[in-house]
Amino acid sequence: MKQVFISYQHDDGDFADVLIQKVKEAGFSTWIDNDQLQAGTDWREGIDHAIKASCALIVIMSPAAKASEYVTYEWAFAWGTGIKVIPVVYKQTPLHPRLETLHYLNFISRITRPWEKLIESLNEAAHPSAIIPQAQTSLASNASQNTLEQWLETGDILYELEGYDEALKAYEEALQLEPNNARIHKKKGDALTQLKRYRDSLISYKRAIRLQPDFIEAYLAQCEPFIKLKRNKEALDVYVQALRLDPNLVDTHIRKGNALYTLGRYEEALDVYVQALRLDPNLVDTHIRKGNTLHILERYEEALDTFEQALRLDPSNSYAYSGRGNALDELERYEEALDAFEQALRLDPSNSYAYSGRGNVFYSFEQNEKALMAHEQAIGLDSNNHYAYHGKGNALNNLEQYEEALDSYEQAIHLNPNVRFTYYGKGSVLAHLMRYEEALVAYEQALRLDPDYIDAYESKQIMLQLLNRNK
């Protein structure tokens, strides 16, 4: 008697009972995980054996089944193993694209359920002479010799469905069969990265590169775990290596520029963004990043030109407007800056940087309460906006709320330790609090970032004089 594996989510148990009875009446045995798995059995191993021993798998699809890790694993494993998968749509739900390629059966209506077609599909699967659906022909016909490809197919489906734990297990099974396959080590690394096992993923990527030294995708895949582990210099080295392999990779130039920007190496970041724009001058986001870098370098006219170029390419880009507003603010064209921020917020009311930019203009007008409110709105939208914390610190400093200002500067430094103005603001607050030694350290940190920072140098000298007087 041929076995049919029934995959369903237990909320759909009543319908599953009816279906199981119909399948049994047609002369098939059925396998259901809650009936056949014994206590203590490894569920995946037991299910794998049961699926391989079946002529077909019926998956009962509903919103609950689509969300179920177990149901997803079962039909994906069957697909990868070459077992015929028969989707039965019990409740309205969008099917995964791979399931849509199969001939699914619509059982939503209680009146016209196609039981005969279901049994006909099972009979086709049970007999070698039956017609096998095109989507699964190659796998089914080579089930015995294509084990490696079956595991890869299963892993890829599960990865695509965000079942990263099970995808990882499938890739590990594939590596048991072919341990020197660089492509599989790379896939394993991708699954580990998604599981936030960054150190393990780096090991897999490095193995892939050792096996295939020109495997550029494996080089680039290392970047995310390096960045997550805050190993930005190593991420930068990866981009350099990748560009040696292919100097025309626009996206790699951009990512290298971003890494340099994060490290506070703004001149180098600017050069890389310029290279990327030579390769593709229509990259709006790269124009914006270039503009932000020019702003930090205090090249405000060039920054303004760059943001306006971005707006010529995309007149509805909220972040290009907020960047333009920041440049106009530094150029003391305050009314134009406010107009730019208002336009940014009309296009995207959730643009945190437009709110913090408005706050900076209010600060320039010495409207500190309004500036404080704008920066707090920005932080409410994006708690990682270091500009907003810096601006909030400035407003609180002017309002003589020094302890609160110090907290804001500290948060800004935590988010971005490479902004000299924030250390200067921190030093100013500490000086007001008569914590001169700490203020001296803050001014020295500002000077390490920019040895020509005159305000920080002069403030440092004042702190040294005060400390000498107090000795």
The number of domains is: 5
Give the CATH topology of the largest domain: Rossmann fold
> How many β strands by DSSP?
5
Strand content: under 5%
- Alpha-beta content class: mainly alpha
Could you tell me how far the N terminus lies from the C terminus, measured between alpha carbons in angstroms? 96 Å
> Which architecture name of the largest domain does CATH use?
3-Layer(aba) Sandwich
How would you write the strand order of the largest sheet? 2-1-3-4-5
Instruction: Give start-end ranges of low-pLDDT stretches.
Output: 37-41, 130-146
Gyration radius from CA atoms, angstroms: 31 Å
Q: Helical content, roughly?
A: 55-70%
Task: Kindly provide the name of the CATH class of the largest domain.
Answer: Alpha Beta
The largest sheet is: 5 strands, parallel
Number of helical segments with 4 or more residues: 28
Average pLDDT metric: 89
Within CATH, the superfamily of the largest domain carries the name Toll/interleukin-1 receptor homology (TIR) domain
Shape: elongated
Keywords:
5 domains, 471 residues, 28 helices, 69% helix, Rossmann fold, 5 strands, Serine Threonine Protein Phosphatase 5, Tetratricopeptide repeat, single chain, 5% strand, mainly alpha
